[in-house]
Amino acid sequence: MYNILLALDNSDYSKQVINLGIEVAKNIDAKLNLLFVVENKIIYHPFVPMVFNPVMDGFDFGDAYSGFYDKAKDKIKVYGKEILKKAGDDCKKNNIESVCFIREGILAEEIIDLSSENDLIIMGRYGVGVEHSNYLLGSAVEEVARMANKPLIISSEQINGIENIALAFDNSEFANKTLRLAFWMKKVWKKELKFEIFSVVDNVDEADKMEEIIKGLISEHEDFSAKVLLSDSTEEMILSYIKENPIDLLMMGAYGHSRIRELILGSTTSSVIRKIGIPVLLNR
After folding, report:
1. At the topology level of CATH, where does 164-283 sit?
2. 2-155 is classed in which CATH architecture?
3. Pairing state of beta strands 98-105 and 164-168?
4. pTM, whole model, 2 decimals?
5. Tens-place pLDDT, residues 133-184
6. How far apart are CA 98 and CA 5, in angstroms?
């Protein structure tokens, strides 16, 4: 049985994480490991006793600071248990096995620590307090994408069922690894999946070469098609392509050619994730 790790809070993005997790688990016969992290960096921030804590939306800790941090931690744990119970109930309704984890620490570090025991990670693009994020990619998501050696699905605020999948391909190591993952998905997925492997290049000669490469790679695989798009802006073309086509999931390598792997997430990848309206699967 496969294992999928879901990172949960009470954000709109996180609410879709459980729905996406159930969709994937149904189709590959997986168990869902539900994780809620009590984040130390929030609880022990020096201004926490004086300002609104976005993780505890609606909770009032009172005015007394005596024992504040222990009380805050206990209340967040209760809050986390409520979130996990609801998610667990959703799993049960869908006949999906699930296990709940409450851990204390730093969200990204806890996810990375548990990643070795899981085959896939799913988390929301942003957490609670997204209105304060200026719509930048969440730091936890970036760190997990950089450091976890497992595929990561970043959920959007709204999701549909997964049927039509697009894979952005640049013939890099990570793109080829992601293509092999797509072949595996097609093999094990219970429902019918259709894949379009597309590439963005800036000249006709390169387009002909890339089309030949992609067609060679998918020649023995049904329900895989190839398309090469001409554009000077990879990011804009990917976003336009996804917007204009009925795509439910975008698959990408976490890095393309010439990326500094452990320092920054690939610039095109990061920009697309911030702006796209569907879930994105990153592979590294």
Report:
1. Rossmann fold (3.40.50)
2. 3-Layer(aba) Sandwich (3.40)
3. unpaired
4. 0.84
5. 433 345 788 888 888 889 999 998 777 889 999 999 999 988 999 999 999 9
6. 10
